[in-house]
Amino acid sequence: MSEQWVYRLGEDELLSKERIGGKAWSLGRMMRLGLAVPPAFVITTDACRAYVAGGQTMPAGLPEQVQAGVAALERDLDRTVGSGPHPLLLSVRSGAPVSMPGMMDTVLNLGMNDAVEAALAGESGDAGFARDTHTRFLTLFGKIVLKTDTEEQTAADPAGLRQLIGRETGRDIPADPGEQLRLAIAAVFESSQSRRARSYRRHYNLPDDMGTAVTVQAMVFGNLDDQSGTGVLFTRNPLTGERTPYGEYLPRGQGEDVVSGRHTPEPLSRLAELNASVHGELLRAAQTLEDTAADVQDIEFTVQKGVLYLLQTRSAKRAPEAAVRIAVEMVDEGLLTPAEALGRVSAEQVRMLLRPHLAPKAAKEADVLAQGEPACPGVGRGVCVTDPDEAHDRAAEGEEVVLVRESTSPDDVHGMIAAHAVVTETGGATSHAAVVSRGLG
After folding, report:
1. Which residues make Cβ contacts (< 8 Å) with residue 8, sequence separation at least 6?
2. 3-state helix, strand, coil in the chain (%, to 5)
3. At what angle do helices 62-77 and 177-191 cross, to 10 degrees?
4. 116 vs 112: CA distance, rounded Å
5. Spatial distance between the Cα atoms of 94 and 256, rounded to a whole number of angstroms
6. Least confident range of 157-161, 259-263, 285-289
7. What are phi and psi of 61, to 5 degrees?
8. Residue pair 58/182 in contact by the 8 Å Cβ criterion
9. Average pLDDT over residues 388-408
């Protein structure tokens, strides 16, 4: 009998983060707290390691267990993957045992094809939403699975986009959702061995054989209508440590829009203006999660037709100044002991606090050339470069550099690690670029 590679979240036992990754573990915990989470199953990190060790071959029994997991989601939701009239679309998300924001891959809206687009248009009454969702799937699948970037190109319709991707890669995007899922799972497994993932692990002294779990979850749609959207919430300000919720919201968006940095979202107060009830529900859930974890939480959420869904929670990356303030205040609040608080502030963060800062008088007298939203307080100095490879190479030669990009992608992490500062033209303070930079100080 083959090993059990797949576990249903909220149904089977909640395994350790080492087995199912931080993302699935947090989803399972939220389900146990009674919070609104779309149903999901998880493929273990053991399966990823077996896949890599087996020369990128799926381990015995995994395809059948995945198929059973999908069938369970279909029964739970009374929807069908790959057909109408009530189609089910899936997200396929990575999840390492230790948080590695943006370093591995995700595919959204999986299960989409022409027939599903028509069914989704009929069910929602909005052909534009169905077309947008189809295009999003093709673009992301092409990028993550087939390794081509069509985001800067346009096609008249999904058929044109498929042809464009086919010409560039020599491969077709399959219409069969089972084949889509198999390829997406393989791509997520393989992303654990990518250059960016290895660079991140090397910087933080993490083992290279951690692998990644894969969470397969029912999609919810922030791009559905004016009462839908997506966002990120920190239970405390990750820049300053102030005990106030901090976040961003993008109406009519999907999660990838915010965390990728390609779109600049609005402050979280925008959600309060659009739907005060959902905003209040979100804050209550955030407080529950912080109290349960006794740590600041970074929460990803989606609102679909005025209904809140939580998609992820994890301990938040925070600026060095914020780390110290949060640790001290959580002792005062009785959430941590002094010994636990000391463990929340690393030696590297203490070193960062002792670095030079811009004097207040100098800031007032300086000529401002540009201004924007800070992701991490501090001062960075160096020659501006726009290529992460160049930033890495020049830093290796002892030169101080600042990496300047329209937006960063996870593939830029080696240049971000090497730079003294990172500047992007688009994106908000909750994007992966900002989260990674904050973690780097």
Report:
1. 40, 41, 69, 72
2. 45, 15, 40
3. 120
4. 6
5. 13
6. 259-263
7. 95, -20
8. yes
9. 93
Measure the CA dihedral 117/152/198/92, to 10°: -10
Place of tokens 């083959």: 2
SS3 at position 122: helix
C-beta separation of 54 from 76 below 8 A: no
Q: 345 near 371, Cβ under 8 Å?
A: no
Residue 196: other Cβ atoms inside 10 A: 21
- Annotate 201-254 with three-state secondary structure: HHHCCCCCCCCCEEEEEECCCCCCCCCCEEEEEECCCCCCCCCCCEEEEEECCC
Q: How many residues does the chain have?
A: 441
Which residue reads 């309060």 in tokens?
272
Relative orientation angle of helices 177-191 and 127-144, to the nearest 10 degrees: 50
Smallest CA-to-CA distance from 177 within 81, 86, 40 is with 81
Q: Is the pLDDT of residue 79 over 90?
A: yes
Name residue 233's beta-bridge partners: 247, 299
CA distance linking residue 290 with residue 298, whole number of Å: 9
Vertex 294: Cα angle to 289 and 300 (nearest 5): 35
Please name the residues in contact with 128: beta carbons below 8 A apart, sequence gap of 6 or more: none
pLDDT tens-place string over residues 130-164? 999 999 999 999 999 998 876 555 556 899 899 98
Q: How far apart, in whole angstroms, are the C-alpha atoms of residue 230 and residue 303?
A: 6
Residue 243 burial (10 A CB sphere; 0-12, 13-18, 19+): middle
Q: Which of 15, 78, 40, 20 is nearest to 309 (CA)?
A: 40
